């Protein structure tokens, strides 16, 4: 998952970015509200962590403008503002979650996964399709109950497709979910990873929609 971090404190921001990356998130970090609002509108992210006390544009105004423009990206507000009125204002203003600093990094990761899961209509954390089960927290994959070893990119690509099950995702959308700023993207990277996933899992798991992208069929409810 590719996460936008909007935090002006350099030490805290560096720690949050490192901690989330250790949990498998791709993290882009900006340090002011204007940059945060611009990136939130880009459509490049799975979720965002937003501070409120930001230079340039206050975090609540960033959130207001994003929601007013129709942005539905899951946003977790992470702030030192701990008054009940602040929490109510943040949640009523469009935040999907409101967390007071300091926060345990593993709890933060769990909250982000929960936000993304709900945003994609997933009830359980375990993603399943055609005998394949993916655990976002443990970063493990099984096929018919047997573990399958995937590279980091293969796992992230499979997760993006399983979260979006039933939807066709373009190569550009998949690249956005795999790579953060400064990471080199080879022109055929998505195709190579999908080829490997089909070999390691099952050929029919991922369907190519010519000229559009790739999809995994949504598993019908039991």
At the first level of CATH, the class of the largest domain is Alpha Beta
Using only C-alpha atoms, the radius of gyration works out to 18 Å
Based on Cα principal axes, name the global outline.
elongated
Helix content: 25-40%
Structural class, please?
alpha/beta
Within CATH, the superfamily of the largest domain carries the name Response regulator
What percent of residues are in strands? 15-25%
User: What kind of sheet is the major sheet?
Assistant: 5 strands, parallel
Organism: Ideonella aquatica
DNA-binding region: 124-218
Subcellular location: Cytoplasm
Modified residues (4-aspartylphosphate): 51
Describe it for me?
With 222 residues, the chain is of the alpha/beta class. It has 2 domains: 2-119, Rossmann fold; 127-215, Arc Repressor Mutant, subunit A, CATH 1.10.10. It is 39% helix and 19% strand. It is built from 8 helices and 11 strands. It has helices at residues 10-22, 33-40, 59-68, 84-92, 105-119, 152-163, 171-178, 189-200; strands at residues 2-6, 26-30, 47-50, 75-79, 97-100, 127-129, 132-135, 140-143, 146-147, 207-209, 213-215. α6 (152-163) crosses α7 (171-178). The relative contact order is 0.12. Keywords: Cytoplasm, DNA-binding, Phosphoprotein, Transcription, Transcription regulation, Two-component regulatory system.
């Amino acid at each position: 998952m590719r996460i936008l971090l909007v935090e002006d404190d350099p030490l805290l921001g560096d720690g949050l970015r490192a901690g989330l990356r250790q949990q498998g998130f791709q993290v882009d970090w900006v340090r002011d509200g204007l940059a945060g609002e611009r990136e939130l509108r880009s459509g490049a992210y799975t979720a965002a962590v937003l501070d409120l006390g930001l230079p340039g544009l206050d975090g609540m105004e960033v959130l207001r403008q994003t929601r007013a423009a129709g942005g539905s990206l899951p946003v977790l507000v992470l702030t030192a503002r701990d008054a009940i009125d602040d929490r109510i204002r943040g949640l009523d203003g469009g935040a999907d979650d409101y967390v007071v600093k300091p926060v345990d990094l593993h709890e933060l990761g769990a909250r982000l996964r929960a936000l993304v899961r709900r945003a994609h209509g997933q009830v359980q954390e375990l993603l399943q399709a055609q005998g394949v089960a993916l655990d976002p927290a443990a970063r493990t994959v099984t096929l018919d109950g047997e573990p399958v070893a995937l590279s980091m990119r293969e796992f992230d690509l499979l997760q993006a497709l399983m979260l979006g099950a039933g939807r066709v995702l373009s190569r550009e959308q998949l690249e956005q979910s795999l790579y953060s700023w400064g990471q080199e993207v080879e022109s055929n990277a998505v195709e190579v990873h999908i080829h490997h996933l089909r070999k390691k899992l099952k050929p029919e798991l991922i369907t190519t929609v010519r000229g559009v992208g790739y999809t995994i069929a949504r598993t019908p409810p039991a």
